[in-house]
Every structure is written in C-alpha cells, then in structure tokens.
Design goal:
By secondary structure, the chain is mainly α. It is about 60% helix and about 5% strand. Bound molecules: iron/sulfur cluster (3 copies). One iron/sulfur cluster (SF4) binds near residues 133, 164, 168, 171 and 271.
Length: about 350
C-alpha cells in the first residue's frame, strides 16, 4: 500500500518540480498568476535548485550510509549471504563523497556562503537547471574539450564506464535507489530487456549525433564563421525541452518505478554513448569475465540495471561458456551488480589488460 501511494504521487511530483525548476515563468503564466514574481518559488530565500539538490543529496548519501553501516544487501540470495563486497563498499564510499562534495557543497553551499548578501539570499533567476552530461561543451571551452576529448577517454580506457556508477550525479541517484528494497525490485522487474529493448539503444546514438551537431554550431558561431542566432536559439530550446526536460529529467527520474533506474543512462545520455564508442575505439580492456563455475541460474541478468543479458555470456544451456564482455558489445557501467548477485561467484571484473578485445573473445 505504501508503495502504491508513493507511485501515485511520484511522477506528478517529479513533473511539477522539474517544471518549476526549468520553466518557472511558464508555470506562473499557466497557473493564472502572470504577475506573480518568480521569487514565489524561493523558499526561505533559497532557489528551487538548492532544495532539489538538498533532497537529492540527502537521499543519495543516506542510502550510501545505510548500506555501509549494515543495511541489507539487496543482492543477497538464499545461497549467498553476507555484507556487500569490498567493491560495492568502495563504490558507495565514492558515491557518497562525490555527491556530497562535488555535486552539493561546491556548487550550492560554499559559493552561497561566500556571497556578501548572505546564504539565504539566492539571486532570482529564470530557470536554473543545467545538464552535466552533454558533449557539446567540448566545443565551447578549452576546459570542456580537455575533459571530453582527453580525460574521459583516458578514464574509459582504464576503468570502463565506471564514471557512471561511481561518480556521476545522475548515476549516483540510480545506484542509491537501486540498493533500497523498492529500487532493487524496480531494477529486477521493470528494466526493459530482450532484443527489442537492446535495439532501441540506437536512440542514444541519435542523441549523441544531435549533441555533436549542436556543439559544432556553437563552435562556428563562437568563431564568427557562421551566425545563425535564430537556428541556434530554436535548437537550444528544442534540446532543453525534449532531451533535457522531458527525457533526461521527467522520464529519466519519474520512470524509475516503471522502467528501472537507468532509462536515461541507457537510451538518452550522449556522454554515455560517447564513452561506449571511445571504449570500443581505444580498445579499453574493461570487461566482465565469467568463469567455469556458472550454473545457469540467471540471477546476474536480473540484477543488471542496464538490461544486459549477462547470463548469455556466462553459459549456454547451463554449460559455462566463459565469454568476456565489455564496451565493444554492451553499455556496461561497471556497477558490479551482476557479480554481487551471482551465488556461485562465477563472474568477476577482468584484470586490466587481461581479457581479449572485440572479436577475440572466445
Ligand atoms: S549514463 Fe550519463 S547520466 Fe547516466 S551515469 Fe553515465 S554519465 Fe551520468
Ligand atoms: S553467472 Fe552466476 S548468476 Fe549468472 S547465470 Fe551463471 S551462475 Fe547464474
Ligand atoms: S553487466 Fe554487471 S557490471 Fe555491467 S552494468 Fe550490468 S550489472 Fe553492472
């Protein structure tokens, strides 16, 4: 009953919140109070973004602490009991620190404390939600270019897409919710799986191409080689509405209970598609390696939030196949859920450089 009430309230709440966060002026106009000031949405002098970040961080960090301090490991099975593995503990420590420091204290708390007018006097701004996972900033600043074209490929070569399960703010929420009892069930039961769901992942490639195209337009505009203000503005507005607001925010978070926790990460996020391509091109040696203990129990597939059919690499008709997989053929984020859930320890991350690459796996 509690979960049903939650489900009934969750999506409308997410929709209402992101609407206010991203389009406050339009929400005011739509509500019939066109003269009302946007500061109406500022509670105690703080912008909606601050309150959103506070709740988000409390949820993520709370779930991490709960797990690290002995909360039930959702990957436990009847045959495999015990505390989360050292990998999972390290991952949740990383998530805790990244969320608290990089995504809360640094952007929301410290600058506000240093402002002369004081902490509880946020400037009234029209909209405030910025996305961190696009690739077009690589075309607008040297820092963005270094980050996207150098730091990310290097990290992917060494660590695969663990950025998505150890650090990224969006991924932090997905991982945190995924260890809570309801969230773990949403991942197991609602994550789209199968051939059709996998084919649909091409959508993410389309969004990456759109993001690169938009980045190129910004670059040409910045260099004053081409000026197309109208086109730029309408492309930016369309991206904001369709990709960032509708897909990345409302569906990305609101559909957790309906489609699992990684819909945006699997079908939308252009950075993730870029990382996957970079991993394949740079021959990243990140991989999950099954061994000969596999008994064909298929619990690994059910645990994967990215909808990867892990068991199909581990066995055929319950006979172990020991076929490694990595970024050359899956969108694996290195969360370790499949490894944690296998009751016979038939899966492990391959040591760096220790597995075959695309086309070489047995
Ligand atoms: S897929 Fe994108 S949004 Fe999801 S965790 Fe990775 S970088 Fe973040
Ligand atoms: S790897 Fe483990 S969970 Fe997956 S099919 Fe084999 S025995 Fe089952
Ligand atoms: S295959 Fe395993 S490590 Fe990769 S995303 Fe799925 S559960 Fe996580």
């Amino acid at each position: 009953m509690a979960e049903r009430i939650f489900l009934a309230l969750f999506l409308p709440t997410v929709l209402a919140f992101y609407s206010i966060h991203k389009y406050p002026r339009q929400v005011l106009d739509f509500s019939g109070f066109p003269q009302a000031d946007i500061s109406l949405f500022h509670l105690a002098g703080k912008a909606p973004g601050f309150w959103y970040a506070s709740i988000y961080t409390a949820l993520v960090c709370g779930a991490c602490l709960w797990l690290l301090r002995g909360g039930r490991n959702q990957h436990q099975t009847k045959r495999k009991k015990g505390a989360p593995s050292s990998y999972q503990r390290a991952k949740f420590r990383s998530i805790f620190l990244a969320q608290l420091i990089a995504f809360y204290l640094v952007p929301y708390v410290v600058p506000a404390m240093l402002r002369p007018e004081g902490f509880f006097h946020d400037p009234v701004a029209i909209g405030g939600k910025a996305a961190h996972v696009y690739v077009w900033p690589a075309f607008t600043s040297a820092g963005g270019a270094i980050y996207i074209f150098m730091v990310i490929p290097l990290a992917v070569w060494f660590f695969g897409k663990r950025y998505c399960s150890w650090f990224c703010s969006c991924g932090n929420l997905a991982e945190a919710v995924g260890v809570l009892p309801w969230g773990a069930r949403w991942v197991r039961e609602r994550t789209p799986r199968g051939t059709g769901a996998r084919k649909l992942e091409v959508l993410q490639l389309v969004i990456l191409l759109f993001s690169l195209f938009f980045g190129l337009m910004l670059l040409l505009d910045g260099l004053a080689l081409v000026t197309a203000d109208g086109l730029l503005a309408s492309t930016a507005a369309a991206q904001d509405l369709v990709i960032d607001f509708a897909f990345g925010s409302v569906i990305g978070v609101g559909a957790y209970p309906l489609l699992g926790t990684r819909i945006w990460c699997r079908y939308g996020c252009p950075l993730a598609q870029g990382m996957k391509l970079v991993g394949a091109v740079t021959r990243s040696r990140f991989a999950v390696q099954p061994n000969d203990k596999c008994r064909g129990l298929n619990l690994c597939t059910a645990a994967c939030p990215m909808g990867i059919d892990v068991a199909s690499y581990a066995h055929r008709d319950k006979q172990p196949t020991e076929q490694a997989f990595g970024l050359w053929d899956t969108p694996c984020i290195g969360c370790g859920g499949c490894i944690e859930s296998c009751p016979v320890d038939a899966l492990a991350f391959a040591p760096l450089g220790g597995v075959p690459i695309a086309g070489e796996s047995s």
